[in-house]
Amino acid sequence: MNIFEEKKIKVADAVLALDLDGTLTNSKKQVTENTKAAIAGFIDAGGTVVLASGRPTFGVMPVAKILELDKKGGYILSYNGGCFLDCKNNEQLFMKELTHEYLPILEKQANEFGINLMTYNGDKAYALDIDEQYYMLEITINHFIRVKANPLTPQITFPIIKCLMTADGDYLAKVEKEMKKYWEGKLNIVRSEPYFLEVTEVGIDKASTLTGMVKKLGKSVDNLICCGDGFNDLSMIKAAGIGVAMSNAQDRVREAADYITKSNDEDGIVNVIEKLFEWEK
Questions:
Q1: What is the mean pLDDT of residues 189-209?
Q2: Which of 44, 168, 193, 243 lies at a C-alpha separation of 20 to 30 Å from 15?
Q3: Quick one: which H or E segment has residue 119?
Q4: pTM for this model (two decimals)
Q5: Do the bridges between strand 75-78 and strand 83-86 make them parallel or antiparallel, or are there none, so unpaired?
Q6: Each residue of 23-44: b (16+ CB within 10 Å) or e?
């Protein structure tokens, strides 16, 4: 039996949490017209949409506006769970800052590992190396202003929610293991992409923020459908009533999912929304 028929989540009760890169957007970082129309139909039928991304809020906002969440209603989970925003009211419902005293240690570790370190403030991305290829990828995706900060710590006088370490994926996998061991119980360390290592306060990930906020909004976690492709989507896919992996997802993500939809280049989110509507017919 199809998981959507087994669970039988009514569209009007459903909360659809969507990762952005590799999930909602295609390889060109675009939301297709088919996907946009399907999400509009889902919202019009009473469904709730949450854009759940590792991106900073500034980088998620343009996608939220494309989907007209500021008019139709919807939410943004950004910084990998560090923030939760009501798009219609532009009200921040949750925020968890990263302990500022950890930043000098993170910078020291980045230098020892020979990798890049960055953080954010509004439309600016501060980094040790602003020419590094993965930093350039991050600012291109999110349209940040480049700010060189080497050393980083003295320039970061503002609150920080997330830091990002960047390097080649194979090497960063080794760094991830060392970082998790060192920061156990203090920071949450997870890769969103092979070359992006996300650093947030302990207990902060997509699942913890999402499930907590879903309950505060008066919704049931049993009716939560989470769609993703990356390592940082694992937590919410496992916590969801229905966990959905894109066919282009990392192996571990597909293995953890209840359902595998089409790829992000094949309007995989449209397929999920269609499945929700199908059993109600």
A1: 96
A2: 193
A3: strand 116-121
A4: 0.94
A5: antiparallel
A6: bbbbeeeebbeebbebbeebbe
